[in-house]
Amino acid sequence: GQGGHAAVPHDAIDAVMIASTFALNVQTVVARTVNPLQPAVLTIGKMEVGTRFNVIAEDAILEGTVRCFDKEVRSHIEAQIRHYAEQIASLYGGTAEVVYEYGTQAVNNDVASASLVERLAAEHFGAEAYHVDDPTMGGEDFSFYLDEVPGCFALVGSGNTVKDTRWAHHNGHFNIDEDGLRVGAELYVQYALTWLSENK
Question: Which CATH number describes the domain made up of 4-91?
Answer without folding.
Answer: 3.30.70.360
